[in-house]
Specification:
Blueprint lengths: L1 E8 L6 E16 L10 E2 L6 H11 L6 E10 L5 E9 L10 H4 E22 L7 H14 L7 E2 L1 E5 L1 E4 L11 E9 L15 E10 L2 E3 L9 E5 L3
Parallel strand pairs: 3-6
Antiparallel strand pairs: 1-2, 2-6, 2-9, 4-6, 4-12, 5-6, 7-8, 10-11, 11-12, 11-13
Length: 234
């Protein structure tokens, strides 16, 4: 679903352009949106972080040097249900050296979500160096969404938790769930820096997440509501 929301300044301080919102619905059997401090024994947030939602849109359509997806709204369309399980995992990081699984194997606990469905609304924010018409970016994004194309399969927090997506018609109501979870991860990278590589250090940002009647309103990245920290060593 493509919605005209209102005017804002265009790239290069051009005259005001209409803001367009892209809305999709995503669903899956399992999801796990764990904060950075629980990456070993995983404990999920009750709904997606803006960073996880941005990852879904970027899996469908991305041009990092031209624009960045900015999440505007996340709606919870199914009941929040948890599931707990243990998995055998490998402690060592992937490298050129051989890994002996019998020595590196460990059992870890995961608290995830099950039978999830969300409606996510996002906006395309062009980079300062973008040359072209924003409308073209939206048209390309909608063509990919409607045809089910993606650069790689989107996921719901963990790569093995597959996310399915489609264009939203906006008819399914959000669940009447009210929840204040306090500070939530907004993103783990500086959205103004598109030169993300393996050597790029994370730069954590947080915001106060309040779910009202199943709807999470996400402030813009440059909003004072988003608290940005210094480089974080992970």
């Amino acid at each position: 679903m493509l919605i005209i929301r209102g005017p804002r300044m265009g790239a290069y301080n051009e005259p005001e352009v209409k803001i367009l919102d892209v809305t999709i619905e995503v669903w899956g059997d399992f999801a796990c949106f764990s904060p950075p401090y629980s990456k070993v024994e995983r404990l999920t947030y009750p709904f997606p972080t803006p960073s996880a939602a941005r990852g879904i849109f970027s899996a469908i359509y991305a041009k990092p040097k031209e624009f960045v997806w900015e999440i505007r709204r996340i709606e919870v369309l199914s009941d929040i249900q948890y599931i707990s399980f243990k998995r055998n995992e490998v402690k060592a990081k992937v490298s050129n050296k051989p890994i002996f699984t019998d020595e590196e194997r460990t059992q870890r606990q995961t608290v995830a979500l099950k039978d999830v469905r969300y409606r996510i609304t996002a906006e395309i924010v062009p980079r300062a160096a973008f040359v072209g018409r924003e409308r073209q970016l939206y048209e390309q994004a909608m063509r990919r969404i409607r045809s089910g194309k993606c650069f790689f399969q989107p996921s719901l927090g963990l790569r093995e938790f597959v996310a399915y997506f489609e264009e939203s018609d906006g008819t399914q109501p959000a669940k009447k769930i009210n929840m204040d979870i306090g500070w939530m991860v907004y993103d783990v990278f500086d959205l103004h820096d598109f030169s993300v590589s393996k050597k790029t250090k994370p730069k954590l940002s947080l915001f106060h997440a309040v779910l009202k009647d199943g709807v999470l309103e996400v402030p813009p990245y440059d909003s004072p509501e988003v608290v940005k920290g210094e480089d974080v060593n992970c």
